[in-house]
Amino acid sequence: MTMSASFVSTQYLASSLVLPVQQAQAQLATATTEESTGQYADLGLQLGDQSGYELSLKEQVQQLQTLTTGDSVVATNLSTAQSALSSISSSAQTTAQDLATWTASANSDAELHTMGQTALQELISSANATSGDVYVFGGINSSTAPLADYFSSSTSAAKTAVDQAFQTAFGCLPTDAAAANITASQMQSFLDGPFAALFSGGNWTTDWSSASSTNTSAEIAPGETATTSTNANTPAFQNLAEAYTMLAAFGGSQLSSSAQQAVASAATSLVTKGQSALTDTQAALGATQSRVSDAKSAMSAQLTLIQQQVDGRDDVDQNATAAKITALTDQIQMAYELTARLQQLNLAQYLPVA
Amino acid sequence: MSLSAAFNIISSSFAANSAQTAVVSNNIANVNTSGYSREVVNLVTNLDGGVDVASVTRIANAALAEQVATSTAEAAAQQAIANGLATLAITVDDSSSTTSSSGTDQNGASPSAMLANLESALTTYQDSPTSSSAADAAVTAAQDLAQSLNAGAAAVNQVREQADQDMASSVSTINSLLAQFQTANDAVVSGLGSGADVATAEDTRDSLVTQLAKQIGVTTTTASNGSMSIYADNGVLMFQDTPQTVSFTQTSTYADGVSGSAVTVGGVPITGTSSAIQSGALAGYAALRDTIAPQYEAQLDQIAGGLINAFAETPQSGSGNSSMPGLFATQGATSLPSTSDATGLAAAIEVNPAVVPSQGGNAALLRDGGINGADYVYNTTGASSYTTRLQQMVSATGSTQSFDASAGLGTSASLTDYANASVSWLQARNQQASNASDYQNALVSQATSALSNATGVNLDSEMTNMLNLENTYASTAKLLTTIHSMFSALLEAA
Fold first, then answer.
1. What one-character DSSP code corresponds to residue B376?
2. Tens-digit pLDDT profile for residues A315-337
3. In whole angstroms, what is the distance from residue A252 CA to residue B136 CA?
């Protein structure tokens, strides 16, 4: 503080060090807090009108972290679906091979039935795969098992529908002796017509599937929404269910060899169709998986950059703060010493006692 | 020159010496009295060749005294504003961000941070739409947001109530100071008339002006008879021979939209007008109560209104239905609020009880819609992984909305940006007021030091004077002895 130094009041001299010491002590308290936390003691006061921008950066960090966590849930659901699709695919592969080696003969009828029953059970079990409490092939209707058990003890809706269709077409059940009279071409047209109709449209969603045809979707990156599931109402599931059901229902029955041959060849072509549809579904899910994983790595990179910006605003330079603490401590000590010395600078101390 | 003339001179010297000693003693006694102006004795040679005390001068410095008063008033105003803003800033203190168990940062306390937390909870919910805990977490985040707006509105009212109380006590201090000033001023005027020593009364008067300046910015003029007049810094007369009455009616409870009464001097309002006072604590309190806090409240109200609109439910079926408050509502509301009629929303906003499990509600209505009944159900099939409505809500906070211009943050922004801008607005004012307060306090300290150095007492200088006086006394006494012995010699010779 500069002033005309010719005259200094004693009061000023005595109090001149009070304000600087108070200021230094306040600064020391702030610096100590900042040194221990690594952040500015009062961020709002430090940033002023930049506070809102700072908040928006922190919100971005929060959003990216939340989306990253959410993406892990999505990725888990997707990989559960993929692994279920692989088992469906390998069971279809097995069935296709078995069908290729199968030839119609009197005592191999039961083989067709077993083949179909095993494959259908595997298909239903895979289609009802869950991730957490979510049926991954349920579409948005994820809390109900997509496919009901065809072979349940209380006759399933699907089995009833199959039996009814056969009854309507031929006036008997496949297990009745009268079924032996059905020709290969009659069987063929039944399979292509009334039987095939059971596996599409309203029949499928009534008798077979509780899944929703609407797939789930989720925001996987800021502003980027992806379809995150497939559902049991797609051709892959329908074709394979149709093929396996015809084998299970008509194999090992009273049908003639030629009619069984017709069943086997119809099943073979459906399995092939199903396999190709399955590959498409797997590819589509795979694309989503890679989108999610790309989104996660992009967000991770973004997160690092934004976090750096946030830290740049919030964080004090701890080396500088440490230096400041030392300087302030020195200053306060110096002020104390000066105060003590100033007390001695008093003419009365030096006057001889009268 | 006769020996008897020498005696006269010696006696005048003793008189002058004791007058000076009295002044030096007075100065030393007041060495630590703030606002004390030191006195000096003016000596003249009299007709006998001796010394007379012509006058005692009080070393005053009107310019520096005025600087002290001005800076004191400015500092007091800024300090009052800074204190109020610091109270408001606590409600937006986001420096304490914590990391939750899921590794997601949870930001502090501001409505803006709470909005981000809600967005984050809704995002998590849309990733796990079947999870009832995710639904509950979203409802809790919404409650935290509503509460942060309620708390902000309450803090605004608290700050206004405190400012109103402070104004009342400031007014009573001003009236008391003006009454004391009258006593001191009368003493100066009558003292000057009768030629008495008025230094003490003048010191008192100056000190009262400085105390007055803490409450209200003032300027002074002095008439030829020594009477001082005081004007408020907006030119309103406060004291001329007699004090004007300063009046104020206290308002004990504040709510959104309640305005407090003005301070008047002799019937003239000095707050809340275009020519209001500019400095002193009173000006700071008035600015806080009438301008700053209400504007912040208007911003909170706009945020609350924006929230109710952003999360509103639109009818999905039926006819003649209009959009209704969804997740956020106010009690008994039957329509959505408009931006121009948002008064009181921040205090009243709450999470719709229809989605709060502890109040008998169903948190899953967030996902499915239907808070306002069957016509407002979005998830018509009841599918448990339905996320369309949740995604709408997540993006609602980021889409542009209209806001009322009077809140001072523009008319068009996303809710998130608007809430952030409000925090910026508050913290910028907090920072400015805090800096201005520090700066003005430094000016006060500087001006006070300058005044103290110009008019105060230096002990060493007074001690030196004292020694000087001692020596003069000793020399005069010696002179007296010498003349005495000369007289004695003369008488013995005779």
1. G
2. 888 899 999 999 999 999 998 89
3. 54
Nearest Cα residue in chain B from A66: B120
Q: Read out DSSP for A26-51?
A: HHHHHHHHHHHHSB-SSHHHHHGGGH
How far apart are alpha carbons B98 and B103 in whole angstroms? 9
Task: Write out the DSSP string of B106-172.
Answer: EP-SSHHHHHHHHHHHHHHHHHSTT-HHHHHHHHHHHHHHHHHHHHHHHHHHHHHHHHHHHHHHHHH
CB-CB: which of A19, A50, A62 is closest to B104? A62
Say yes or no: B422 contacts chain A, CB-CB below 8 A. Answer: yes
Q: Is B343 exposed, middle or buried (0-12, 13-18, 19+ CB in 10 A)?
A: middle
- Contact flag B112-A4 (C-beta cutoff 8 Å): no
Show the tokens assigned to A128.
């009802």
CA B157 from chain centre, in angstroms, equals: 16
Rounded to an integer, what distance in angstroms lies between the CA atom of residue B409 and that of residue B339?
13
Tell me what pLDDT residue A234 has.
92
Of A3, A49, A219, the CB nearest to B391: A219
Mean pLDDT value across residues B424-430: 92
CA distance A216 to A210: 15
**Percentage, residues of chain B above pLDDT 90:** 67
Token pair in block for residue B195: 């030629």
B126 vs B386: CA distance, rounded Å: 8
Q: Which residues have C-beta within 8 Å of that of residue B342, sequence separation ≥ 6?
A: B298, B301, B302, B304, B305, B404
**Within 13 Å of residue B444, how many CA atoms lie on the same side as its CB?**
23
Distance CA B95, CA A44 (A): 8
| Mean pLDDT of the residues in chain A | 89
Whether B396 has its CB under 8 Å from any CB of chain A: the answer is: no
Per-residue pLDDT tens for A238-282? 999 999 999 998 887 888 888 888 999 999 999 999 999 999 999
Asked if A55 and B107 come within 8 Å (Cβ–Cβ), the reply is: yes
Shortest Cα distance, chain B CAs vs residue A56, angstroms: 7
Q: How many residue contacts between A and B have a Cβ separation below 8 Å?
A: 211
Exposed / middle / buried, residue A337 (Cβ in 10 Å: 0-12, 13-18, 19+): exposed
User: What distances in angstroms separate CA B352 from CA B157, B299, B311, B312, B345, one per listed residue?
Assistant: 24, 22, 11, 11, 14
Contacts of B32 in chain A (CB under 8 A): 10-11, 14
Task: Report CA dihedral (B150, B152, B157, B160) to the nearest 10 degrees.
Answer: 180
CB contact under 8 A, A7 and B120: no
A66 contacts B124? CB cut-off 8 A: yes
Q: Which of A39, A50, A219 sits opposite B394 (nearest CB)?
A: A219
Helix spans in chain A (H)? 10-15, 18-37, 43-47, 51-101, 109-127, 157-170, 184-190, 196-197, 201-203, 235-250, 257-314, 318-344, 347-350
Whether the per-residue pLDDT at B408 is higher than 60: the answer is yes
A215 within 8 A of A230, measured Cβ to Cβ: yes
Half-sphere exposure of A272 (CA within 13 A, CB side): 9
Higher model confidence: residue B2 or residue B166?
Answer: B166
Determine contact: B432 vs chain A, CB below 8 A.
yes
Chain B residue with the nearest C-alpha to that of A39: B95
Quickly count: other Cβ atoms within 10 Å of residue B57's Cβ.
14
Query: What is the side-by-side order of every strand in the sheet holding B264-265?
Result: B246-247, B264-265, B268-269
Confidence of residue B1 (pLDDT cuts 50, 70, 90): low
- Residue B131, chain A, CB below 8 Å: the answer is yes
Model ipTM?
0.81
